[in-house]
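Sorry to interrupt, but I need a hand with the structure work. Could you add the entry underneath, on a fresh line?
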Amino acid sequence: MVPTEIKLHRKSARLELNYAERKPVVLSAEFLRVHSPSAEVRGHGRGQEVLQTGKKFVAIKQIESVGNYAIKLNFDDGHDSGIYSWEYLLELGEQQGSLWQDYLAKLHKAGQTREPLPTGTRVIQIKPIID
C-alpha cells in the first residue's frame, strides 16, 4: 500500500504516512533509525544485528524517493543507507508497540541507553585476558 502523503514533522521528529483507505502511520525518527533495514543495523544474517544506542535525539534530515516502492531516509547522525519499502513502513507501524518494547529490553540487557554519549566521549572495548 503506497501512502498518498508523507509529512516530516521536524519539531517532533516524526514521519507521518497518510493513506487513502487506512489510518495514518506515525513513526518517530528514533524508532525508524534503530529499525533501519540497512546491513549496518540488521547485519548480513540472523544474529548479526547491531544494537543501536544513543539515538534518542536523532532527526531525519532528508527523505528521498526510491522508485515507486520505497524511501531512503538521511539522518543527522550520518546514517543514510537504509531503504524503507512501503511494505516495511506499514509493518513497522503495525508492530510499533512490540518492536519498541523489544528494543528497550535489548538496551536494558546490554546495559545501554537511548541517551547519546556526551560530546567528546570515546568508547573503547576491552577484552579480558584469560590465562
The two ends are 58 Å apart (CA to CA). The domain at 5-110 is CATH 3.30.2020.30 (NE0471 N-terminal domain-like).
